[in-house]
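Risk register update: the risk of archive-format incompatibility is retired. Evidence:
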Amino acid sequence: MQTQSPNPKNQTLLRAGCPADQQGIFRWMPGLYVLRHYQRGWLLPDLAAGLVLTAVLVPVGMAYAEAGGLPAIYGLYATIIPLLVYALFGPSRILVIGPDSSLAPMIAAAVLPFAASNPQQAVTLAAMLAILAGLFGVAAGLLRLGFITDLLAKSIRYGYLNGIALTVIVSQLPKLFGFSVKADGLFERAAGFVSGVLAGKVNWVTLLLGGSTLVVILLLKRFKRIPGVLVAVGGSTLAVALLGLEKSAGVAVLGDLPQGLPTFSIPIINLEQIAALVTAALAIAVVSFADTSVLSRVYSAKTRTYVNPNQEMIGLGLANLASGFFQGFPISSSASRTPVAEASGSKTQLTGVVGAIAIALLLVYAPTLLHSLPIAALAAVVIASAFGMFEISDLRRLYQIQRWEFWLSIAAFLGVAVLGPVPGMMIAIGIALAEFIWDAWRPHYAILGRADGVRGFHDLKRYPDARLIPGLVLFRWDAPLFFANAEQFREVALEAVSHALTPTNWLVVAAEPVTSIDVTAVDMLNELDDTLQAAGIELVFAEMKDPVKDKLKRFGVFKKLGEQLFFHTIDEAVRAYLEVYPTPWDDWETRQAWG
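Archived output:
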């Protein structure tokens, strides 16, 4: 017998699983496993990619710190230590983590109400927020709860990202135009921005610098090998320094950075503040892991390496913990910096380590290098990133193919825009769960008949001319049977019997879609059987899955009804019925099947 050779592509996918020797400490510290198998040819690409990545990490990290309501330097603190920790504990070889645009407004919304215009208090609160998010991530990873991000359906994520993008842009526009707005909430900030423009607060030189920085970033975005952020921010910084715009035109600049590295510190806040931060920390943990898991899967497929989702959650959680204990704030993966590392030739986590070390050297030996970096340029970096977050085409696709998911996305968008990132996301998740429960509570069901020219038995609503077998009702239930829908099952099953055109002898439940059953539903089946028996009708099942059948055996229902009334297929049930109740049934397909 000739055997077919395996497809090489399939073999590649098989080899992409967890390596057999990645056990024990190497399972918990994937970075050590990579180091153990490190190849000499990877070193130069990793070093080069790390230096290129540094040019993006510095301005982006500071920009996202500003967007989160924190001093820019803490964006670098939240970059250095997390990169080092993730390189050791994170399973992805190429993922770049650090401050993220999607988390910035969530951090600001959680921290600023308690900071009372006190930057140091905001830093302390943000550090505790990172610690709490990290604890949630590590605990979830140890409990193997990576599946919880399935709550963030695409429709929710589209709406959430659109709301975040709009919130980020509105918050950064005043900085781009050279003035500040003190307001909470999207609409208040938008109103404050418009009022500032109408009141003549715009610094036109600042706007020119920020606007040109934004344009250059957007124009160079299509050229992946050109560090557009570095070119744009570097150009605006040189313009300020060479032309003396800080003094002559009042352009706000970053100023000298504090010299030295972040130190270990435990953020001290009161219990009331900790309780207030818990919800935000949980939301941040879910969002950051959802983004990270998607990005990680994409690049694991590209690099044909295995990524354990639970270890991903642990690695990200530990990176957040380290960020919080070293004066940072919550971090996530980066969909903008990871492609930079990939395009620069990154092979392993060493790229991130090189980037972290380079930033550390900058803080120790050249803290004045970025003195003339205009704040408007950082705002441009954040706005450019926010533009990339908008999901318009996919939202249009949702409207065309699944209208309720489109409105779910709009609800998430409005929730984020009106109430803020954390409440908005929670509302969207609540709506999604309610929709899921509604579908299971009031599922689709059908009366089946034989339609000409189509094999099998089909829904009468789809095939109104389908023929019914006298005395037999074929009833299909398209959902698990559980406490919320058990009573409806009983009602619609009895309704199907009472509306039958001829007196019913058998009610056959086509149970293939029933994937589970609970005690409430089992008791309902017992009651339904008693009711049908009193009317001289047999309750019969076809195509029931073995796990469901096993439950019925444990509950005693299988024995009560009788094993002979459980059939493997609908055709078997129909044939058995016709043997008991001979009925004129001229059906070509049945005669062909039975001979």
